[in-house]
Structures are given as C-alpha cells and as structure tokens.
Amino acid sequence: MSGHSTDSSLRESAQRRGRCGFMMLRLGFAWSTSSATTKHIAQARLSTGSLLRKNSPRTLYNNWCSGLPKALQFGQKSVLASTRLFWDSSRSSGVIFFSMASGSNGPDRSKTPKHTNRLSKEKSSYLLQHAHNPVDWYPWGQEAFDKAKSEDKPIFLSVGYSTCHWCHVMERESFEDEEIGKILSENFVCIKVDREERPDVDKVYMTFVQATSGGGGWPMSVWLTPDLRPFIGGTYFPPRDSGRRPGLKTVLLRIIEQWQSNRETLESSGERVLEALRKGTEISASPGETLPSSPDVANRCYQQLAHSYEEEYGGFREAPKFPSPVNLMFLMSFWAVNRASSEGAEALRMVLHTLRMMALGGIHDHVAQGFHRYSTDSSWHVPHFEKMLYDQGQLAVAYITAYQVSGECLFADVARDVLLYVSRDLSDKSGGFYSAEDADSFPTVESTEKREGAFCVWTAGEIRELLPDIVKGATGAITQANIFMHHYGVKEQGNVDPAQDPHGELQGQNVLIVRYSVELTAAHFSISVDRLSELLSDARAKLAEVRKARPPPHLDTKMLASWNGLMLSGFARVGAVLGDKALLERAERAACFLQEHLWDEEGQRILHSCYRGDNMEVEQAASPIAGFLDDYAFVVCGLLDLFEATQRVHWLQWAEELQLRQDQLFWDSQGSGYFCSDPSDPTLLLALKQDQDGAEPSANSVSAMNLLRLSHLTGRQDWIQRSQQLLTAFSDRLIKVPVALPDMVRSVMAQHYTLKQIVICGQPDAEDTASLISCVNSLFLPHK
Predict the structure, then answer these.
(1) Which are the contacts of 434, defined by CB distance < 8 A and separation ≥ 6?
(2) Fold of 121-280
(3) Domain 293-427 carries which CATH code?
(4) Which range (2-16, 49-63, 266-280, 479-493) has the least confidence?
(5) DSSP letter string, 329-361
(6) What sign has the CA pseudo-torsion 261, 264, 268, 274?
(7) What is the pLDDT of residue 317?
(8) In this structure, how many other beta carbons lie within 10 angstroms of the beta carbon of residue 203?
(9) Do residues 464 and 475 make contact, with C-beta atoms less than 8 angstroms apart?
C-alpha cells in the first residue's frame, strides 16, 4: 500500500500481476534473508543467502522445500510446474507466489443462513461478512484465548479487511466450504481479525510472516500456540490441492498431524524467530547518539527516490504503481529548500509530472471523482478499483500543495474533486468519514457473480447509447459519443490490456483515461475549448447518473479515528488554500464528530473506531477499542491544520491535550520514540515502533512534526527536545534508508531549518486581516 517497503512492494507487485493470490507456508524454518532484515532475525533462519545470489529460482525452491519438516513437503516438481513464479533478482531474498484463479461467488445470500457464529454480534463489516461461515469463528479476545488453553488446541488466526479482493476469494473458496469448516472448527480455535479494527494484532503477526517468508499480505493466515505464539505463517491458500499443489485442507491436516507428533519442534522453531524479532525490531537511541545531519539525510532520500523514478508516466518503480503521497510531499519540501539547485528543480518536476499523469489516468475516477487504490500498469491506466479514505485525505493535501507550488489550476481542481467524492460517498451524517469502497461489485442487478471494477467500466456501446446527440459545428456528423470516446480512449473492443486482466473480468470494457489535452481534442473536432469542456462535463454527468443505477460496491462504514484525522487535514488544508468556507465548515464538522464519538471523556482516551448502525446512527462496539498511536498522531495533525485554517484556539487546545495523553500512553522512556500500541498489553508479543512511511505515514514521522508545531505554538520547549529524541532513535534508519521514511526526513529538515512563525496583527473578522491570512495560505511554507 504504496513509500512501500521492499517486501510489501514485491508482494503487491506479484499480487496484482495477473491479479494472482499468493500462498506462502513457513514454519519458522525461513529460507532467506532480506537486506533490510537485521542480523538477529537472520540468525534465526535457515539462511540460504549465498544460494540466492548464485542459484536459479528452481534451485532456491528445492532448497526451500528441503528446509521444511518432511511431513510438510508437498512435492517439489509438480508444485513448481503448476505455479507462476515471480522473482526479484535485485534482492538477496525471493518469494515464490502461487497464482490462483478465483472461483464462484458462493451461495445465494438471500436464503436463510444455515450457520451463524459469534461474529454476528460484531460491528466490523469484515467480521460480519464471515458471520455465516460454517466455521466456529471467534473475535480476538479472552473468550477465544481461554478456549484454546482449556482445550489445548492451536489457534488459527485469519486477518483481512472488508474491501480485500483475495479475502473475499478465500472466504468463498474455503471458509464457506462445509468440509474445511468442520476441520477448522473441530481442531483449532478459529479467530477472525479485521486488520483495520485491530492494526496492533495485524502488525505483530505480519512481522512474523514477513520475517519468516520474505513477504506478506492479506488474507493473512497464522497458526498460534494457545498462548498466542506463532509457529506457522502464510497468506492466501486455495481450498484444495491442484495436482500436488497443497490446498488449505491438506495444510490443515498436516498441521494437525505435526501438532500431535512434533509439537515441541514447531513451538521451539517459532519461539526462536519470535525472540529474534524482539531483538531485530528494536528501535532506540544509543548513548551519545545525535540527530542525523539534515542535508545529508535529505539529499540521500532524494537520490534514492530519483533512482526509482519512472520518467515516462511518473511515479516510482514499475507496475504496480502506488500514489505514495509521502514521497510526493517530501519532494516538494526538498524543492522548497533547494530551489536554486538542479536537484531541487528535478524534484519539483518529478512531483508535478506524477500528479498530472495520475490525474489524467484511470486511477482517477473521471465520472464519480476520487482515486482508486493503485494502478496495475505503469501508465496509471487500469487500477485496482478499491477506494480508501486514507488515500483521499493524503492526495487532497498533495494536490493542493502542488497548486501552491505551481499555480496550476488542474491541481486545485483535482483537490476539490477528491473532497467532492468524499463528501458525497464517504460521509456520515454525524460528520465522520467511512473507511473504504470495495473493488468488486455485481455488473447488473441480475448478476450472481461479482467482478472487479464492474461499477466503474464502460463498453463502447453503452457510451454511444448514452451520448447520441449530434454536435453542432463539429466537423462532419460527429456525436457527443465520438468526442467523448476520442478524449477518454474508449475503444470498440475495450481498452484494457489482456495482460492486466488475466481472468477476463474486463474483456470488452473501457477504463476511462484522458488521452489528449482539451486543446488537441477541440482542434481535432473543430470546436472551441469552452464548447468541448461543456460537452465533456455534460457527458460525465450523464454517465454518473447511469452509474447510480448499477449495483454499488460494498461500502465499509467503519469510521476510524486515524483515517478521519488524515481526512480532516485534507479538508482543512484545501479549504485554507482556496479560501473555501464550506470546506472549512466540513472540516470542523469532522473535528466535532471526533470529539463527540471517538473521544472517551471519562477515560481520557481516543477510541479507535465506531460504526454506522442499522438505524443509521453512530454505534460503538460492545467493548470499545482504545486508540492506537496512529489515532492520536493523525488526529493531532488534523487539529493543528484546522487551527491554522480557522484560528480557533479550541482546536489547538484539544491537540495539546491529545499530545499529552499520547506521551503518557505510548512514549518509550528508555529508548525514545513511540510504540504503535500499548506496550503493556499482555496479548501482544512484540512492542513495535513503525519504521516505515507507506500507504499511510508512520505515526512516529507525523508525531515528530506535531511536537515541533505544538512547541512553537505553545512555547513548550520539552516538546522540541522530545521530537529530537524521537528522530535520534530512528537515526540509523534515516541515515541508511531515508527513502523508507520520507515523511520523517521532512521532520529532520524542519529541525534543521527551524519552524518560522508568521504573526498577523488585526481584528480576526477584519477584511484586511483575512486578506493577509489568505496571502499566507496561498504559499507553500513547509517549515511554517
């Protein structure tokens, strides 16, 4: 999810090339070492690093199989022959991904459910999707833990999220299967976790899976001892063997056998990896260590990003391409302090070109606004159609910042476009924001099988039928459809490359992508640019009306404090730059929602999530989930942005209050930096500090800047010192691989250049005061 780690980039690359799922089975007998993995983890593996550098993937595969207990070797030759193999030769590790075709869409859900389990009492959309599986699912909690201990059974932990395509596939293939459900229920204590609801649980076990396999992803499948210690980790499994390729049923039966006959070996192997992870994931400031040099760290981060920059279409690395707002924001900050240098000019060019190409591409929804999750190709054309709230919030900020830097109206228009989508489709009447829209939906109301992108794509015939009118003044008998199809690249046979659609779900369909500038299209049809703009706007509105009649994708109405904080920043920043009171009012409604529904006044804590109930009112879970570090950091950032946009002191005061509470709950008084979750939680085996800016920025990165801003706004010098201590704890990472933490590098730069305060004296409601504030807001001042 995009600033992605090498592991996650490889994982998502393989996952989307051919929209394949991928399966990995590991028992702590790991077979590789990653360049980013510490020596402690490497020592816990059966390392084949030397083999990886000189042997082929086939030789690697043979060595991998030979490292497993004999009972879990699945037949090397036939497995290798029946898989599609993805190999990253640039790394000192590799991952074998098994390409799977998706099956049917499962049973008719209109019938009375045959099975109902404990998940039916939950609020999470993802957990509710599994409430009628023939699996005796438990939510994460003491009831499940006690059952595992009392019956001395291993735990099967399955983690995913409601808009995850391959989570849907594994559910209908395996978790709706009666035989597999019986095996799971009789031999394991089965726990389902929504990774968005419990990111703390997800991070701990994903760390195990990544460390023991070299990759990770969702759905995540992990087998644990009754005391929650992992001993086997994997991701997607098909239901049954294909040839001699193992399916979930086979894996389950062999784990049962090994648990009964070889339990001690499984447990000790998993414990060795876990102990190594405790040492290898430790982040702390060493005695005498100082803050890294800002120019050195910033220049290295720029060079690393420039090395991965893709010239033709922008973005970083080849397909799949992620928006990576953290990279874009760093590059604009880098330009701001290096304007006179060639590197600064190049950094700005990279950002603006990337944002333009994304805005024109299919990753941008030209009919209903907003951005899809990522592009499966290098040209930003065919997306993974899921839409996530955290992308919208960060991209709104990135586009409005590009407008500040360049003055180019396209960027302001796109920022407004994003907020229009969120206001219309992801907003609750309470003022909160929903989490996501799914990629899959039914093509028609009569359809029985969902398809990815069905809600968003068009045939040429549909376009002609919707836009039949002859355009007066155009050359020849030209219809509105002719103009629209030319401008947006619509083809009779469809415009999706079969390589991006291996399962044929998009055959004959078109993903809209702007192929020409309005000037070129207008000239091509001999009409004015203004007339063309009217025609295209009218056409998009007609298509939007038709889309409303299609079966919509699943909407995850879970409302998360962290993602609402990111979206709050989006509305506040765009509203301030454009001087748009309506956007600022929407931002304040979001802040009021957070204070009313996700702040526990009695416990003086943020709550992580709330939900839209059946009565359309906001509801809490029976046992509310306490907020994590992300929740505090992102909400504080949003409140500071809102204070700067509105000058209302209340929001600054609440931000200060939340920062104090964050310090109490998550600060590591021994090694500095913030833990991701409550370090005293006995159910979490690792106390982690997020060391990567990915699809979302690391909460430590955001906190470093929050502390600086709060210090200058409140006069508290201890917060400057805390920010410096935090950055010092991450200094090794910042010096070696700053590209992993571009948002934190911005904080290092802010420490170096110091924040500048701009004081405007005047009556708050006076016209000249407003003009001065507007002037300041129009400028990109990263160290303001």
Answers:
(1) 389, 426, 427, 428, 555, 556, 557, 558, 559, 612
(2) Glutaredoxin (3.40.30)
(3) 1.50.10.20
(4) 49-63
(5) HHHHHHHHH-TTSHHHHHHHHHHHHHHHHHHHS
(6) positive
(7) 87
(8) 18
(9) no
